[in-house]
């Protein structure tokens, strides 16, 4: 998938009022640059999702990419699949993101098909699936709806299926939390963001992106019926878990 080279300058100008962050046309245009410069380890998590697809996707099953944005994870899964009869269901509730995703990932002869679906993932049910990804998506779901979503995902997985859950997390120790925030901000500065951009985007994401602790994620996954939930990636305050049925 060709990267969009347009630079993210969404929060570069001072604003008197900071509106809530939304995945609109403005964000869709610069999203690859935005997330690459904002989320440490993002490319590694996405690319390695394809490695896990090669290991865990089963023949004649569905793979769900929930909160697919521009389809980077869907592409990685498609490139990783080594078995026949599969289909990828790429879901997002932002028409702007899906429009760009469909342009970036046209159908390819012999490749696993990708269906782009505009929907609210909290209202979906899942079936006959061997792999589900929630890459930096659950953090945007209301807290009270997260458990039910994970339970439905678990119910739809075939034995041996996996969920990849990638999230920004918070830390119970206030000193560690502050350290991780400072390192994340340093990462953004190293990637060209200034303090105004960092501050304004953080304000826009307040009460929109709600992080939780690693322990809370693992506990919720266990309560949802997953047999294991193992940490396989961490960079600063961003992690990824593999939950197995």
UniProtKB/TrEMBL annotation:
Residue span, Methyltransferase domain: 65-161
Reaction(s) catalysed by this chain's protein: prephenate + S-adenosyl-L-methionine = carboxy-S-adenosyl-L-methionine + 3-phenylpyruvate + H2O
GO biological process: one example: tRNA wobble uridine modification
Enzyme class of the recorded protein, top EC level: transferase
The keyword DNA repair is annotated on this UniProt entry: no
Keyword field: Methyltransferase, S-adenosyl-L-methionine, Transferase
UniProt-listed Enzyme Commission number(s): 2.1.3.-
Molecular-function annotations in GO: carboxyl- or carbamoyltransferase activity; methyltransferase activity; S-adenosyl-L-methionine binding
Binding site for S-adenosyl-L-methionine: 42, 67-69, 92-93, 120-121, 135, 202
SUPFAM superfamilies reported for this sequence: S-adenosyl-L-methionine-dependent methyltransferases
Subunit structure: Homodimer.
NCBIfam families: carboxy-S-adenosyl-L-methionine synthase CmoA, PRK15451.1
Function per UniProt: Catalyzes the conversion of S-adenosyl-L-methionine (SAM) to carboxy-S-adenosyl-L-methionine (Cx-SAM).
Family: Belongs to the class I-like SAM-binding methyltransferase superfamily. Cx-SAM synthase family.
Protein name in the entry: Carboxy-S-adenosyl-L-methionine synthase
Species assigned in the record: Sedimenticola thiotaurini
Gene from which the chain derives: cmoA
């Amino acid at each position: 998938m060709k990267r969009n080279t347009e630079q993210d300058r969404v929060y570069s100008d001072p604003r008197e009022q900071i509106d809530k962050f939304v995945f609109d046309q403005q964000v869709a245009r610069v999203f690859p640059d935005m997330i690459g410069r904002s989320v440490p380890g993002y490319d590694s998590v996405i690319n390695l999702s394809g490695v896990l697809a090669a290991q865990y996707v089963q023949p004649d099953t569905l793979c769900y990419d929930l909160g697919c944005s521009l389809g980077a994870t869907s592409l990685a899964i498609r490139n990783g699949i080594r078995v026949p009869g599969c289909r990828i269901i790429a879901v997002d509730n932002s028409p702007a993101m899906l429009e760009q995703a469909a342009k970036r990932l046209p159908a390819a002869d012999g490749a696993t098909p990708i269906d782009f679906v505009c929907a609210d993932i909290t209202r979906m049910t899942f079936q006959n699936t061997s792999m589900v990804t929630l890459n930096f998506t659950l953090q945007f779901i209301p807290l009270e709806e997260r458990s039910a979503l994970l339970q439905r995902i678990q119910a739809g997985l075939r034995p041996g299926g996996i969920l990849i859950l990638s999230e920004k997390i918070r830390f119970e120790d206030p000193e560690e939390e502050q350290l991780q925030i400072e390192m994340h901000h340093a990462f953004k500065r190293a990637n060209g963001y200034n303090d105004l951009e960092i501050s304004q985007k953080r304000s826009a994401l307040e009460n929109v992106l709600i992080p939780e602790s690693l322990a809370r994620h693992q506990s919720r996954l266990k309560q949802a019926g997953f047999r294991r939930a193992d940490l396989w990636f961490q960079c600063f305050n961003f992690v990824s878990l593999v939950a197995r049925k």
